[in-house]
Amino acid sequence: MIGSHNESIPEMKITADEHTCIGAGQCVMHAPKLFTQGEDTGLVVVLKPEVTSAEDREAAEMAERSCPVRALTLSE
Amino acid sequence: MASLAPEVAGENAPQFPFERTPLHPAEAFRETQKDPWLTPIRMWNGQKAWLVSKLEDVRTLLSDKRFSADPANPNYPTISAGRAAIAQKSDPNLIRYDGVDHARIRKMFLPLFTVKRVEEMRGMIETITHQLIDDMLAGPQPVDFMAEFGLKLPSYVLCNILGVPKQDHEIFHDCSARLVDITVGPEENLKANEDFKGYVSALIEAKKADLSGTDIVTQLIRDHFLQGTISEKELIANVQILFLAGHETTANTLAHSIIVMLTQNPEAWEELRTNTDPAFVRNAVEELLRFTSVVQYQCARTAMEDIEFKGRVIRKGEGIYAMINGANRDENAFEDPNKIDFNRHSKSPHVTFGFGPHQCLGQALARLELAIALPALAQRMPNMKIAVPLEEIEFRSEALTYGVNNVMITW
């Protein structure tokens, strides 16, 4: 039997700077599975700090581009 | 590093604002977007400033903390003597605050306008939308869309959010409509502004006396005013600006959208009527926001220090005008930018709501109102027509918020 490789799927890490955040909610709008806004503060909360699927990556990239204060960082 | 200081570049600096057409921002932006750097412009009083028309440059400069949004700064670019006079009135609202003070006020308001909080307003917005349509359908034709729907929807929604008593909705609405009506003259507008301030003060007093409400004004009083973190003047000024910023903007986006669709893109109107998929509607709203981009002359800033930008320097004290509507037609960001395409999925988000720390606080609310109202109008008034030729509609070319004072429709 051909051995199965455990190919590691590259992860994209998402971090958000709450101090810079102005609660515009663009991240939530573009990627509701990845971000939400804190109940009391309205500031960004990252729901999924690591994403792998193409769909999630694209959503994260759109969110990062849409953030008006560049509070999101995506890194591989 | 050498700067093309406006003073030096000035001889050929074009006069600003540029002329525009009803459906599109000034064609001149297509040229300025080809300039290697920023474009020197000359204001009404001969003052020079830098025009920012490329989408990427608008994003970069509006998010640079070294710029101030305060209209009272010397050299803050204005488009008329009237606007310059208003710029000197130092109303303590968050639109003109910078840095720490801006963040303090913004943080108080933003939890009230999150995507989730706004979604909870859906039922209320739907009720008002359908009532207004019912009223139009039951009445005579033609009707002024602005007066009977465009201005009324956002106004009644705001009254609800702010906890204005039902019997006062008409007063708030009429007063706010008078405030933004540029056909009545600046004195009328100023009087309406004073009246409006009075109504907002009275509303705040009433809420202070009864803290049981769930509306935004009561929450602001309970959570912030009574804690001493916002002054009375700031509270009045910010509740006032909240109403004003959410009224004629949404109204003109609605009016401009139906004018564009009914006179130029009937297939777009038909798509809105038939395609109820929420993802489609959200995208259609984004595209209409990009295309109409009604707030045109809002994003002026002054540099608080020397700012290096793409190899040159914007000097301390110089003013910039970020033209968000022109940037929304940047062909480097949007393919075929002057075409409405509800299935457009651009990698570049539009800048209709601005960019940087002052990006519109109420944008989730604006989006929801549009996503509810436009399909409802297309579905319940499918044969809506603009009752006059496009050339006869009077457009508010010089207003901060572009659009129309009135537009007659039939159905």
Quaternary assembly: heterodimer
What count of helical segments of chain B does DSSP give?
18
| Poorly predicted runs of 5 or more residues of chain A | none
SS-derived structural category of chain A: alpha+beta
Give the uncertain stretches of chain B in residue-range form. 1-6
Straight-line N-to-C gap of chain A = 33 Å
Structural class of chain B: alpha+beta
Spatial strand arrangement across the major sheet of chain B? 1-2-8-5-3
Helix content of chain A: 10-25%
> Cα-atom Rg of chain B, whole angstroms?
21 Å
Distance between the termini of chain B: 61 Å
Q: Return the string of H and E elements of chain A.
A: EHEEEHE
How many DSSP E strands of chain A? Answer: 5
Hey, roughly how much beta strand do the residues of chain B contain? 5-15%
Q: What is the percent of helical residues of chain B? A: 40-55%
Task: State the strand order across the main sheet of chain A.
Answer: 4-1-5
Give a short account of the largest sheet of chain B. 5 strands, mixed
Question: What form of chain A results from the Cα inertia axes?
Answer: elongated
Average of the residue pLDDT scores of chain B: 93
Strand content of chain A: 15-25%
Order of helices and strands of chain B: HHEEHEHHHHEHHHHHHHHHEEEEHHEE
Descriptive notes:
Chain A is α+β, with helices and mostly antiparallel strands and 76 residues long. Chain A has two helices and five strands, in the order E-H-E-E-E-H-E. Chain A has helices spanning 26-30, 54-66; strands at residues 12-16, 35-37, 44-46, 50-51, 72-75. The radius of gyration of chain A is 15 Å and the shape is elongated. In chain A, 38% of the residues are buried. The mean pLDDT of chain A is 92. Chain B has 411 residues and is of the alpha+beta class. Chain B has helices at residues 6-9, 28-32, 55-62, 81-88, 99-109, 115-119, 122-138, 145-150, 152-162, 169-180, 186-209, 216-223, 232-245, 248-264, 266-274, 278-292, 324-327, 363-380, and strands at 39-42, 48-52, 67-68, 143-144, 300-303, 307-309, 312-314, 319-322, 385-386, 408-410. Chain B is globular, with a radius of gyration of 21 Å. Classes of the chains: A alpha+beta (76), B alpha+beta (411).
